[in-house]
Amino acid sequence: MKNFKKVISVVLAMVMMLSCMSILGYARDTGYTPTIIIPGLFQCETYHYVNGEKECDADGNPIPGPFYVSVSEEFIAAALTEALVPVMKMFVTQQDQDQAAAKVVADLLSDILMAKQSSDANGNLDSDVRAEYYGGSFDTLSDVSREHVLKSFPIEEFFDIAGEDNLYVFNYVSTGNMIQTAQELYDYIQFVKADTGAKKVNLVPVSQGGSIANALLQLYVDNGSNISVDVNRIVFAVPALDGANLLGDAYTYGLNDESAALYTTMFTSLLGENNVLSYVLSLAVRLMPKTDVSNLLDVIADTLIGKYLKYSTLMWGLVPSAQYRDVCRDKYLAGDDMAEIRRQADWYYNAQLKSDYNILTAKKQGVEIFDIVDTNVELYELAVSHGYTQADGIIQVDSTSMGAYSVNIGTRLPAGYKTPWDKNNCIFHEHIDPEGIIDAHTGLLPDQTFYFSGQNHATTASNDVVMSLIINLLTDENFTSVFSYPDRFPQFNKSRETYQLRQDVAAMKEYDTSTLSAEDKAELDGAIKQVEDMLANTVVNVAEFKAANNRFYAIYDKIMGEDEIISSDTTSDLAVSAIKGICDGLYEVYGDAAYSEIPFLILSQLFS
């Protein structure tokens, strides 16, 4: 009888143990390490709450971040009541006396954008703004949340390999508190481990997520913890490890008011060269004298930072360390009332300075670390340093690449260039960019850093090769360096933005072709195959991409009956060309003269 009871006890104990293992998530184990995405600036799903409920628009739909404002109502009403008179007075008199128009425009713009996400003197949000907490893997999310994630991070290929239950997203408010956010990320890592039963997680810090990863690494150091206990791999994607010159320049110098940029290329760099609005805005700014345009830009920058951004320690994390040390700290954080913000910003500045050391320490402890860098795209012309900084449009390469040396856009490494001996982080392999732009030896992790030339930061997720590279690094433990699969994922690759193309190809594969002529059906099939063959080649060939793209859309437009749209596009192209010609002609002849000044310039030329 005693033996029988012992057997029953052992059986019950085993059942209980297996039950606990199931609760811990071992039953979900697919052999893949669960991954946590740390999104970039304003990529997280966030909402403003009123009386404990999400603030909604007139139709009852929650207003998503980052600005939580119904522009059609609040902005227009405020503009009419506050800004109309001083702005019209400036246009009529061609003078902005006492910067009245600049101040009201700056206040209006900053309040509309930032009032609901302002922080106090302790760096804590004033309003009830919350990041949507994803308390489960991707397969548990609502349709709204799923769509939100996939819009900025199309990772369907990951699901095919590792499953939706192995993907998690850490959300945060981009204008919030750095130290709190780092602690919340640490807690989220523990949650994911418990939810899956996994011993470790993978992290994918994207853009601003890179600065949060800096803070997380420093948090482990401060706590005397070993990050390898929790983290298996970190795959940095265009990370802001030493801030972004685009923001640092604004904090240091204000917005760029260089005439050539302001009247010819600033708006096109932001909105696109084929956008009519780009050139309309370039023409519109000539309604104001150049000095008042400069004042307006300066006042907008000072107001946004002085009233709001200087209280956000997450935004301080996007200021490059040198600019923080040399200018910004004393400029914005010197007063006694800023003591707590200064303390927190100094803590992160220290984490920036120790970023390389902390990354190498984590690697030595057993964490595998990779980096993906976009290059050869000028900074947006809002930044003063846009013309002489190697960047991806938003972040300088020095920051995203962990310190790799690069030359300015449009130039090459000098003939006979040799890596400085004290900067050579790999003496066994060749890491010079074939285009002569980057010396990857000088980056912290030359064997684990991948570069994409011509890829804009803002559209990185549209590059299917970048996404495939990230997914393979997350799911293939044999993928350990740039030498693992050079025929598929070489260290130096190029831009290829295919997101919309892939969506349209998928739609046409489901299209009812029974009404098509044999010739059109054959051409559609051939175009789809050409696209799929191109996509299968992860070593980007720009000519191959353009040929496949053009062939597909030629038959796509024909089948979808878009002759009128094509005609409309042609008209639009003509309009863009015409307005661009006017903009370029005005600047070439009259420089930064306002419209009111041009008649006098003409007269002076006639009688000179």
Note down, in words, how this protein is organized.
The chain has 608 residues and is an alpha/beta fold. Among the domains are: 2-30; 499-560, no CATH class; 564-606. Helix content is 50%, strand content 8%. The protein is built from 22 helices and 12 strands. The chain has helices spanning 2-24, 71-93, 100-114, 143-152, 156-162, 178-196, 208-222, 245-253, 259-271, 276-284, 290-307, 313-316, 321-332, 339-353, 355-365, 397-400, 464-475, 499-509, 518-536, 542-559, 563-590, 598-606; strands at 35-38, 46-50, 53-54, 129-131, 167-169, 201-205, 231-237, 368-375, 405-406, 438-439, 449-453, 492-494. The strands form 3 sheets. The chain has a 7-stranded parallel beta sheet, with helices on both faces. Strands 3-2-4 form a 3-stranded antiparallel beta sheet, with no helix packed on it. It has a two-stranded antiparallel ribbon with strand order 9-10. It is globular. The N and C termini lie far apart (121 Å). Residues 4-8, 10-27 and 562-571 have low confidence and may be disordered.
Concise account of the structure shown:
With about 600 residues, the chain is an alpha/beta fold. It has helices spanning about 1-25, 70-95, 100-115, 145-150, 155-160, 180-195, 210-220, 245-255, 260-270, 275-285, 290-305, 315, 320-330, 340-355, 355-365, 395-400, 465-475, 500-510, 520-535, 540-560, 565-590, 600-605, and strands spanning about 35-40, 45-50, 55, 130, 165-170, 200-205, 230-235, 370-375, 405, 440, 450-455, 490-495.
